[in-house]
Design goal:
By secondary structure, the protein is α/β, with parallel strands linked by helices. The chain has a domain of about 200 residues: Rossmann fold (3-Layer(aba) Sandwich), CATH 3.40.50.1100. The chain is built from 19 helices and 14 strands. The strands form three sheets. A six-stranded mixed β-sheet has the order 4-5-13-10-11-12, with helices on both faces. It has a five-stranded parallel β-sheet with strand order 9-6-7-8-14, sandwiched between helices. The longest helix has 16 residues. The chain is globular and about 60 Å long. It starts with a strand and ends with a helix. About 50% of the residues are buried. The structure holds pyridoxal-5'-phosphate. Pyridoxal-5'-phosphate (PLP) binds next to α12.
Length: about 425
């Protein structure tokens, strides 16, 4: 597989290099040089998730990774289902929250961990990342138990929900978690300092495994096929997909699926009040506002880092950005949408509620709508319980961790201390 840096197209790498490096020169994003057109879509859709995903990823990645290895990577990563549920007439939900950390990031995170373990080469690898909650959990679970890979996760002490903390700070083994006596920005700065320290980088094989890694996007392509596989041929004729978007990785993956030949009529990018993209699509002007906190906090992003990949794909395919639907909901509208879904008999959470409502508002006669449910309702327990006036039981995956002791170390906001800790 060949990829190029969108900012500096002369920088070309293969899949292994792109996975190891994450970002290219000048923080440029890597993007596949070619995306094949698959001719056998119906045959693919008839296969089970893992087998189909192995074929899709083989088509994208090529023979750079031996078939048995790639097949094992997919099998180890995709250990949970992605069911489609009917929510209203002609509207379906793709539930992406049945993985170990109850969010769709498990798909990309787990495949990235498998990919990194496969292409790592010799020597030690240390994954260092800062989290305000969800990413840390997905990374910890994805890398847990992988040989010769150490994971260190920094988070702001007392600033993430106790339940979230339990989910990734109770694993032990190759996962070390550190509660920093400071805020999330300080945690991110510590991580940056570590990456700027060439000696430290070499000594412990520092890798960020961050959200712009191409392996995540490729994995996410597979669940769009899984959704289509659960719909009838007739429903697939006029399929409109609404994606709750923050950094726009999820939407990028959907667009890659369409490029491969999956019949999706159009996409809708759904956001919360951090609506840089919907405004851009309407006015043609890219004007990010200051990020505001919302109920759907995983989408509180005003400078989406995957947007250049979206534009690149539209340009390369000769598509017009006018074909991309979009819509934004504020918190009050999100609450109304969540209640409306619940009244229909479907329990959702704020991110999925936004995608649902924007889809419902824009779906036309004769179209079938699909929206992505990116997190389990229990992950946003406090909001969901308050808005709907119900009590949510803890799902088993959370309950199990909730009963375990916290294993985190505590540290002041001091790079020298962190450095010594990493080298230990
Ligand atoms: C990360 C996340 C999103 C946003 O996905 P992007 O790929 O960043 O657009 C939406 N919902 C939830 C629950 C998330 O965790």
């Amino acid at each position: 597989m060949n990829l190029y840096n969108i900012k500096h197209p002369e920088q070309q790498v293969n899949f292994a290099q792109a996975v190891r490096q994450g970002l290219g020169k000048d923080q440029g994003l890597f993007f596949p040089a070619t995306i094949p057109q698959l001719s056998n879509i119906d045959e693919l859709l008839a296969l089970p998730l893992v087998e189909r995903s192995q074929k899709i990823l083989r088509a994208l990645i090529g023979d750079e990774i031996p078939a048995d290895k790639l097949n094992a990577m997919v099998k180890n990563a995709f250990t949970f289902p992605a069911p489609v549920a009917k929510v209203a007439e002609n509207i379906y939900a793709l539930e992406l929250f049945h993985g170990p950390t109850l969010a769709f990031k498990d798909f990309g995170g787990r495949f990235m961990a498998q990919a990194l373990a496969t292409v790592r080469g010799d020597g030690k690898i240390t994954i260092l990342t800062a989290t305000s909650g969800d990413t840390g959990a997905a990374v910890a679970h994805a890398f847990y138990g992988l040989e010769n890979i150490e994971v260190v996760i920094l988070y702001p002490k007392g600033k993430i929900s106790p339940l979230q903390e339990k989910l990734f700070c109770t694993l032990g083994g190759n996962i070390r978690t550190v509660a920093i006596n400071a805020d999330f920005d300080a945690c991110q700065t510590l991580v940056k300092q570590a990456f700027d320290d060439e000696e430290l980088r070499q000594a412990i094989g520092l890798n960020s495994a961050n959200s712009i890694n191409i392996s995540r996007l490729l994995a996410q392509v597979c669940y769009y096929f899984e959704a289509a596989a659960q719909l009838t041929a007739e429903q697939r004729q006029n399929l409109v997909v609404s994606v709750p978007s923050g950094n726009f990785g999820n939407l990028t993956a959907g667009l890659i699926a369409k490029t491969l030949g999956l019949p999706i009529k159009r996409f809708i990018a759904s956001t919360n009040a951090n609506d840089t993209v919907p405004r851009y699509l309407q006015t043609g002007e890219w004007q990010p506002n200051a990020t505001v906190a919302t109920l759907s906090n995983a989408m509180d992003v005003s400078r989406p880092n995957n947007w250049p990949r979206v534009e690149e794909l539209f340009k390369r395919n000769g598509w017009s950005l006018n074909e991309l639907g979009s819509g934004a909901l504020n918190d009050a509208e999100t609450e109304t949408a969540l209640k409306a879904q619940y009244a229909q008999g479907y329990l959702c959470e704020p991110h999925g509620a936004i995608a649902y409502q924007v889809l419902k508002d824009q779906l036309q006669e004769g179209e079938t709508g699909l929206f992505l449910c990116t997190a389990h309702p229990a992950k946003f327990k406090e909001s969901v319980e308050r808005i709907l006036g119900i009590e949510l039981p803890l799902p088993d995956a959370l309950d199990k961790h909730n009963k375990l002791p916290l294993l985190s170390d505590e540290m002041d906001n001091d790079f020298a201390t962190l450095r010594a800790y990493l080298l230990k």
